[in-house]
Amino acid sequence: MSSDPTAPGERILEQVRRAREERLTPGTESVHLQYLTVRLRDELYALRVEYLVEILPAPRITRVPSVPKHILGVMNFRGDVLSVIDLKRFFSLHQSEPASARNVVVVKHGELRTGLLVDGVGDLVPLSPEDLTGEPLVAGRAQRAIFEGVARFKGGLVSLINLEGLLQSEDMYALVR
Predict the structure, then answer these.
(1) Using only C-alpha atoms, what is the Rg of the chain?
(2) Which of 35, 63, 73, 171 is the least buried, fewest Cβ under 10 Å from its Cβ?
(3) DSSP string, 75-143
(4) How far apart are CA 28 and CA 88, in angstroms?
(5) Kind of pairing, strands 80-86 and 43-48?
(6) SS3 assignment for 16-66
(7) Residue 149's CB: how many other CB atoms inside 10 A?
(8) What is the pTM of this model?
(9) What confidence tens digit (pLDDT) does each residue in 134-173 have?
(10) Number of domains in the chain
């Protein structure tokens, strides 16, 4: 195993590149969607890889006043300023690890790029429609917009995050005092 902290991110990005090339190769139709699993505490979540830009060890994050607590601040990403969202705080999960021991998954939706702070990254997972449940296991309308559903994975379940719903959620920008 490499001692380079960026090695897992580089490995995953190489897998994403190969998966995109295979998808573009004529005659290789697939009904699988590719997801990147991320860990928040002991729970698995997944994001579609089409939104993935890069995976980084947590960089220096500059606090910004008067923003919700789950928006940790901003980071420098190749000369651009990106906001960083702590998914554990957004999902109201107990904090157990310092931000510096975690990873930032840089994602892009439309023209918006942002960093998502997670406890760890897993692997790329191809999921077919048969793997997905029709409904996320949450009751509220706001939560249904944030999650695409749940998939069976390695004997358990993984919650599939709808990035557009997450970034456009009213709760994302609401100040809780």
Answers:
(1) 16
(2) 63
(3) EEETTEEEEEEEHHHHTTPPP-S-GGGSEEEEEEETTEEEEEEESEEEEEEEE-GGGB-SS-S--SHHH
(4) 37
(5) unpaired
(6) HHHHHHHHHCCCCCCCCEEEEEEEECCEEEEEEHHHEEEEEECCCCECCCC
(7) 18
(8) 0.80
(9) 665 555 666 678 888 888 888 888 999 999 999 988 888 7
(10) 1
Is residue 2 a part of any domain in this protein? no
> Residue 144's domain is classified under what CATH number?
2.40.50.180
Position 10 pLDDT exceeds 90: no
Asked if residue 1 is part of any domain, the answer here is no
Contact 142, 170 (CB under 8 A): yes
Strands 120-127 and 33-40: antiparallel
Minimal CA–CA distance to 16: which of 116, 106, 139, 142?
Answer: 106
Between CA 13 and CA 85 the distance in angstroms is 21
Q: 103, 58 in Cβ contact below 8 A? A: yes
Residue 37 lies in a domain: yes
Per the structure block, which two tokens stand in for 171? 């709760």
Two tokens, residue 22: 């295979």
